[in-house]
Amino acid sequence: MESMDILNQVLPDFPDPDTLEYMASILDDCEPEEIEESLADFIEEYAGSEEAAAELTSKIKLLKVGDAPAGLAAAEPEGPVKLAATIVLNKGKEEAEAAVKAELDSLNGPSIVNSNTEIITYRDENEIEAHTEEDIIAQAKNRKNAGKLEKKALKRERSAAPKRTAMLEALTKTPSVIHGMVGEDGEYGGNPQVDILMKDFSIDLAGMILLEDCNVTLAYGRCYGLIGKNGSGKSTFLKYMAAKVIPGVPWYLQILHISQEIPGGDKTALQTIMDVDVERMHLMIEKDILEREDDAPAVTTPKETSEFLANVGIDAEDPGIRLGQVYDRLYEIDADEAETKAALILSGLSFTPEMMNQPTSALSGGWRMRVSLAQALFIEPDVLMLDEPTNHLDLHAVVWLEEYLRGYPNTVIVVSHARDFLNQVCTDILELENKQITRFKGDYDAYEETKSQNMHRDASQKEKSDKKRDEMQKFINKNIGGGAKGANMAKSRQKQLDKMSVYESLQKPDQIVKFRIPNPGPVGGGWGIRLVGMGFGYPGMPLLFSDVEFSINQNSRICLVGPNGIGKSTLLNVIYQELEPTKGLVTRNQRLKVARFSQHHVDGLTMKKSILEQMQADYPTHPVPKIRSHLGGMGVVGDIQVRPINTLSGGQKSRIALAMITYAEPHLLLLDEPTNHLDLDTVQGLIKALAGFSGGVFVVSHDEHMITAVCDELWIIKDKKVHQSKGDFHEYKKSILKDFKDKKAHPAAEQYEGK
C-alpha cells in the first residue's frame, strides 16, 4: 500500500496537503521502528494529544508493515537438528571469497565487478584502503551506516522544512507607504532619524541556529552591504528585522524588505507602484465620491457613495468640510507628484512608456521583480532592505540604481554578490560569519584589505601562541612525573595551557568555496557552432535580430551585453538550438558537447529530492563516490548533498545547477547570469574555475569583475545586430555613464514631467 494512501486513510481530513506529502516521503524513507518517532510531531498537532497521536501512528505502522502477517516468526527447534548434508569446513580460497562477496552483497546490494582496467574505479577520498577480508567488510558496514545517517538527516530536513517555510512566510508583510506611524494609543512614534541598536539577539529557525547572541548597531543614513556565505542566514536576518521581532528595533520605523517579484495582475506597472501609497489611494477614492456634489466625474455608483460615507463616518448631507480636509491632506503628502515620481523610477529601471502601461501579468518574472524594486524606492522607507537587487537588472539599470542609492536619505541594507556595486553604494560592510555579524567601515575593497590585515595579524599571533603552547607542553611532559615541586609547576602550566585562546578567525581551507570544472578533451573536427545569416523573432512579433553571423568554438571566451529585453537570453537559446531561427542557419558540430546555465535553472530540479538522489536517478550506473566527488568539487559539500533542494538557499541551488551541467564534461558552456544568487566568495571561486577551464565560455553577465577576468571578447546587441566591441568592458560602461549623465533620466519619463 502506498504511503500517501495510508496517510489519507488514517488522516482523512489532514489540513495541509504539502505537509502530508512531506510525511509520505518520510514514511517512504524510514524503517518500521522509526515511524512513530518520525511522524509524532506532525500527528500530535493534528490529533490534539499524545495518546491520540500514538494510536494513529500505530495504525500507520500496521498498514505500512501489514503486508507480512504477524505471528509468522519461525519457532525455535527443540533438541538436536539433523543436517541435510555434510558440512565441509574448508573448501579453499574460492569459498572464502564467495563468503566475503555474500556478506558485502547483504550490506551493499549486488556487487558489480569492474573488469576493464582502463576504467577508473572511484573511491571516497577519506576511505582507508582495505587489504584484508575484515577490512573490506568493515568498510562496507561503515558505508551502510553512513547511508543510514544520511537518510535520517534527509528525514529531519524534510520534517523541519514546512515549519521553517511557515515561520518565514509569517514574517512577510505587504509593502505600503506610511506617511506617519501611529501607535495603538493614537500617538505618533518617535523620530525616524535614529540609530538602531540590536543587542544579544539570536535567530533559531526550527532548530537551525543562524545567529547567536549577536550585537548590531546601524547608524542612521548609512548604506550597509550585508555579505556572507550562501545559506548563512542573510535573507532570514533581513526578514526578522523587517518584522521587528528583534529586540531594539523601534516599533514606529517603517522597514521594508524586498526580495521577491510581485504577482502578475490586471493593474499596470505604473498603477501598481502608486497603489502602495494606500493613504493616497483611499483619499483619491474619497475625493472622487465627495466631488460628486460638484458634478465631477466619478468612478462609483450612488449606492457605493452612501456606503463609503457611512463606513468612514461622514455626514452624506454636508460633505463639504470633509472634502476640504481631503484636499489639505492630499496637498500635505504631495499626492499630485506620485505619478511623476513613479514614472521616473520605472524609467530609471529601463521601462518604456508602453511597458509602464501594460498589465503586470504581461511582464516576465524579471520585469515584475523590477516593479517590486520600484515599489520599495517609491515608498522611501526609514530602512530600505534590498536582497540581490542587481540580479534582474541590465548594466543601464544598475548604473541608475547606484546613482539613486548614493543620494538616498535614509538607512539602506543591501545584500549583493556584485563587488563593484557594493563599492559604489556602501559606506559600511556587515559580515555574517560563524553566527555573528561584524561591521567593517568602508566599501568592499576596504573590507577586503582590513580582513586581510586581520588574518595576517591572527596568523602571526597564532604562530606565537602555537610556539608557546609547544614549549609549555614540553615542560609539562618533562615535569609531570617528577618531584612535588616540578609536578605542581606542571599542573600550573597545564591550567594556563587550557585557558589559552584559540584563534578562530583564521579562514580554514575547507571554508573557501572551490570549483573544479572537469576539463574536456579536444573536440573532433575542431569547429563548434556557426550562425549564418541568422534572424529570429517570436510568432507575430518583429525580429529581435537579423543577419547575425559569427562562430563559437572550444577556445572562445565571449561576453554578450545589451539592455534587458533586447534578446540576450533568446540568442543563447538559439545557439543552444532550443529555438529554431526564423531565417538563416545555426549549424553545430555533432561531436561538440554543450551545457547551458539559465536564469531559470532551478525550474528543472526536483524540489523534494536531494541533489544526490537526483543525480543518482539521472546517472544510475555511475558510482556514488564519483558523483559525490564531482559535487564536492563544485562547492556542493556536507549536508547540502543530502538536503531536499527546496530547503536550500538561492546560491546553493545555483551551485547545484552548475554541478549538474558540468558533470558530463562539456566542451562549451553557455552561461546566462551565472553569478546571480551566489555569495562573493563563491563568485570568486567560479571566476577562478572558468579562467582555468580548457573549454569555451559564452556568458551573458553584467558582473564587471567576472567579465574582465574570464572573457577576452565583448559582443553587444544593438539595432538588431550583434557587434563585436572594439573596446573593453570598462569603455562600454563609460559610454553608459556618459549617456546617463547626458540624459539624467530615461526619455520615457518625459511625458509625465510637469504633471
What do these coordinates show?
With 755 residues, the protein is an alpha/beta fold. Helices cover 44% and strands 14% of the residues. It has 25 helices and 17 strands. The chain has a six-stranded mixed sheet, sandwiched between helices. The protein has a six-stranded mixed sheet with strand order 13-14-15-11-16-17, with helices on both faces. Strands 10-9-12 form a three-stranded antiparallel sheet, covered by helices on one side. Helix 1 packs antiparallel against helix 4 (50-64) and helix 17 (444-479) runs antiparallel to helix 18 (484-499). The protein is globular. The termini are far apart. Residues 67-77, 107-126, 296-300, 501-510 and 745-755 have low confidence and may be disordered.
**Weakly predicted, low-confidence segments:** 67-77, 107-126, 296-300, 501-510, 745-755
Total helix count?
Answer: 25
- Overall helicity: 40-55%
The share of residues in extended strands comes to 5-15%
Task: Calculate the terminal CA-CA distance, rounded to whole Å.
Answer: 68 Å
Q: Assign the structural class, choosing from mainly alpha, mainly beta, alpha/beta, alpha+beta, or little secondary structure.
A: alpha/beta
Principal-axes shape call: globular
- Reading side by side through the largest sheet, how are the strands ordered? 4-5-6-3-7-8
Main sheet attributes: strand count, strand direction, barrel closure = 6 strands, mixed
Radius of gyration: 32 Å
- Average predicted local confidence, pLDDT: 78
β-strand number: 17
